[in-house]
Amino acid sequence: MLSELSPSFPGILQERISQTRRGLLGLRDEIKKWIELREKRDLQRQYVTQLKTLRIQIEYLLAQVERELESISAGDGPLSVYARCRVVDKRILWIRRLWTYFQSKFDQRDDEKLKRVLRAADDIVWSCYAQPYRVLKIQNQPSQPLPFITPVYSPYAIPRDEPPQDLRSDVDAEFLGAMLQQMPIPVVGIPAQSIEEPWMLAFLAHEVGHHVQFDLRNGAMIDSFSDMLLAKGGQRWRPWGKELFADLYSLLMIGHWALWALADLVWSDPASMLDDTNSRYPCALVRLVFMSSVADKLGLNGSKGLRGLIPAELLDHGPVLIKSRDIRETARVPDGELSKLCEFHPEDFKEYQGVAYLWGEALAGRGSVAAKKSLRSARLVLSGGVRAWAEICELTDEKERENRRGPLKGGLLSSIVANGEDTVRAASAETDLDSRNRRLASLVMSSEIPGIGS
Known about the structure:
This protein is an all-alpha fold. It folds into two domains: 2-110; 115-419, no CATH class. Helix content is 59%, strand content 3%. The protein contains 19 helices and three strands. The longest helix is centred in the N-terminal third of the chain and has 33 residues, at 9-41.
């Protein structure tokens, strides 16, 4: 036996256990200090629930791992000690990976280049997400989604129980995705281009719509909206329920300027506009005409949003399944209840008199609007910002466009923040946190955890 050849071996085993313990205690201390720092910097009290949830869940995991570590003794022999410490080290590593997933997104708010746009994004997300809960007077509102900057072309939402799309490439990523499913902290990725083009924050209205559909009433609107599409448009429409709901929600949040922004994002050649190979997503043409039809029904200006981009002949282009007859069905989509939940008022977007229109004038330098810190204000400012940007896009003089773009960029971000609701954005405690903790621990403490055998 090696222990017989080396009298100092018990000390070596004790040190091996101590090494693992230092890793555990070091991570615990690192996370504790980080959460305390983030809480200190959260002057607007926007992240109370997310940080509390992170602390509770990670502390629970660390306690489970510490219990396993305490069961390891130098008297177990070298093979057992080294093998078991190695397993604990791997568990600690996975907890660190879980934490750093969220750490990197929170810490973007310390970056001088990112902090202004993220501060405005936080206000937009709150304005869009909290609205239906406020109308329904629901006390146990879940925590609002956390926006972060990411190098993507299109923004994307990651609901609470769906693993991030960028974590599905290999076994390790799938395992981390499974862990994240037990973390009730939804996130929204927004394009890095938003830093220089803040009117692109308009896409947040759509992405938050995904979270609202998923969270409100325990996801009841997912099936109900899809069933409505089935009844109105046929079987082809049912799988599009999530995407079209989010499109509708964006209209209710920022008016027909949501359609203007989407057209700017998806407009392309006819083949691309009519591509419906993904059964879960309607082709770009369907989305645009759907939003235009519903916008008109809501008393908005659907034609203004489309900007005359879609020629009539495109509706029946080529041997594709999309036909104008199918698209016209969307004009009958019911929206009454959702409109009330969103506190939607079409007059807010009327030309010459609506609040969003007036904000567009102010951001274009042709007037002023008194700041009003209400739940609706931030998204109405954003709507006005998109309108002001649309006006700039129509200018033929490149120098004039650039001269007006800079002031709009700064003015839009500062005006959104100045009008963001001044309230503690804390949600009630997650009701299923205990069960989530147990499921999360079962993953971390599993004998199948990736890396155990390598």
